[in-house]
Protein 1
Amino acid sequence: MNQLINTGKGAARKLFHGRILLKADVAVKGKKRAMCQNIIDAQSAEIAQMQDWLMNWYGIQYAPMPMMGDMGMMSDPPMMMGMMAGLNRLEGVEYDIAWAESMIDHHDDAIHMSERLLERIPESEGHAGLRALAQQIIQDQSAEIETLEILITELNA
């Protein structure tokens, strides 16, 4: 039962990453676009690693949740309403600021989930690779939050 629940949450995360990464691709230009590409690259690699672990450790084949919307996929399912609500109605600087704020919320959630994993699983137990990934997520996404906060300040100027 837990594997199914965890898989569902993983599917929701993957779906969110996919949607937010698509938004990142069109959100900003120049140096901001490079930051977006860095987020896409880092989180795509993390997603692929976690998919491999699900298969190798638990025999779970990851499958994203279907979504309807512009391309026949569900837009803004309830689990993502807080992060994604209203972004499609915004444009320009307003969109960029809302996107950065959503990414901060998303990164903050990933940091807290990683901290919980490290607190609940002693170093001598569990998968060392998972602990290492959790530590890397805390480090990388904390730095990205700082960058996103600077971006918001610049966009509000």
Protein 2
Amino acid sequence: MFEELAIFTGLTRPQAHEVLVGARRREGTAGHVFFDQDDAASELFVLGSGRAKLTRVSADGRQIVVQLVRPGEVLGCGCHHPEALHPTSAVAIAPSKVLVWNEETVFRLAERFPVFALNVLAS
């Protein structure tokens, strides 16, 4: 099911399988928060199915929808900096499944499969 996502483009089936094995799966119904604004950002989150939104709380306390996210798109990634924080919150707006890779796994997979890293950056 997830192998059709754009982040797997250019990978063979066994390579895509190896990338998927490294991911944890999280699910949520509408309203489920996958991460909050200003949480530590040390993982890669990719929406596998469903719909989600990225929101940000403005200085005056209003919630602003920054982006609507479709399957295959990155919800958040802070793997590039050890002290990174999520600039937005990721909230399901329909029943959704998310693939989550920890920082160590992302770097290992990026070294083994550079096309995976490029696909993540492109999404």
Protein 3
Amino acid sequence: MRQITLALLAALGLTGCGGPQAAQVAADSAARDIALPIADSTLALNDAASPEPSRVDTVFIERPGRAPAPASASKPVVRTQSSRPAAGPVPPPAPAAAGAPPPAPAPEPAAPEPTPVPRGPARLEAGTAIEATAAKALNSRSNKAGESFSATIGSAVTAEDGRVVIPAGATVTFTIVAIGPATNTAATDGTIELRATGIVVNGESRALDAQVTFVEHTLKGQGVGASEVAKVGVGAAAGAILGKVIGGKTGTVVGAAAGAAAGTAVAVKSADRDVVVAVGARIKLVLKSALVAGS
């Protein structure tokens, strides 16, 4: 009621100051019920916070046949947390059963084959021994110094790596340096000396620098020859002269016989024995310098 009275007073004041229009406004205000409702304090208040709205994820599905969006308008990728549990540590392998054989080790990789190294020509070093056999016979009675002689290689001669340098059947050539008989029975040997001059391999002749170290040979008696008969005659004549001086005619005969016997003994003792190298006799050589195959 008090509020209504105040409203009327205000309207009258405005009427007096503002004229008819103001009076009309004041009348309209007075006619309104501007009373505020009285708050009801008996109602229970609910001060609980309103629940947050639930989260909604929006998934965009591209329609078939629709052109892809430009790169500038790319949509954000929605990442969701996987529900799979994280992988734990790997458990150790189960122990092998008692008495079980251990697993076989893995085979080692094969080693690569070495690259072959090119080899030079095969060669025989100095000091290599070579053996040949005489291709023809030698005799100190018929052969002389300066003549040629040949021998044949019986077994192939190989280098240290097994390659053949001198094949079997190759021919070694020699020069007779000296040859002579044993001059009496007291002499233990005659004279035979050869010098290697070359070797022929597959029809090709090569130089050979080698020292002959051994020549297989024998001594063969020549018998009583013309010179030895002269020695017997001289002995008989000397005995006859000696017998005549001692005992006349009978002494001459006895002396001649004794002198002949003495001369024969001298002839036999001084008879020569020839040096003979038979076909197939062994001849040994040693290289003085290296011999290269094909050189």
Protein 4
Amino acid sequence: MPERMLWNKLRAGRCYGIKFRRQHPLGEYVADFYCVDAGRDIELDGAVHDLRRDRDRRRDAWISSQGVEVLRIPAGHLSRDADHVVEYIMRVVERRMEALHPGLFARRKAEFLEKREAEAKKRAAQVAARAGDSEPRGVKKRKKE
């Protein structure tokens, strides 16, 4: 399912620590994905959207009137190249965040990368410590008598 695939890439701050919400209510509508800091509604459009373009136009106009920008992505694009779609979403989110909150995206990205580097160093130290153990992990050493 394309929506689940995109959610797995966006959720839990996986994209530079920027948080997204899934199925977020906006008035009488529901955003597929919503980034609060960017005021951005990301809609993943499947084949059914071809049949309801007028409804989508009214929906987008109302959401835009509330100060929220709508980004529509055809589901087929996600199926073909999910990483490229996520990169595109993040570029759009970055531009919008910079317009609304100058420097916020850069700070979040720097914090995210710093945290990730610290976690990698910690894991490397744990692996090195385990490699230095003479006993297999989980085996207690016997006391010499």
